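Request:
Um, any thoughts?
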Amino acid sequence: MSTVSNEMLSVFLADDDADDRLLFEEALMEVNNEVKLTTANNGELLLQSLDENTPPKPHLIFLDLNMPVKNGMECLEDLKKDDNYKDVPVVIFSTSCQQEAMDQVYKKGANYYMCKPDNFQKLKQLLKHILNFTSEDLLVRPTRENFYIAS
């Protein structure tokens, strides 16, 4: 089995905070510099970008929850209804670490949940952790107890 980090990755990120997008990109490149990252500042732009850049399907989609226009919850719902993207693993990546939000996105089909860490090294650890999953691990949703990834 190959890990996700051993193949050329296509990763999409929707986050309305430009600084968070930049930090995510820098951390991702330090963890695996063979990643094609496509970013958007809201869920609507992410969906448009997916339609413009697919095929191939992305390996992973990271969604912030709190965004204008189309938030992460709405975007997740749209992704899981779309036959083209319903099988693409979605990782919620948000400052909101409330149990209620985690429960909601789990019920709506997100694959994993990661709270935005408070420093760059922790962000790199989180991304390294998720990129070390096998492709099969990402496609099979974990139990609710293993849904949250902590640094």
Q: What stands out?
A: Confidence is low (pLDDT under 50) at residues 1-6. The longest strand covers residues 9-14. The chain has one domain: 4-149. The first helix runs from residue 18 to 31.
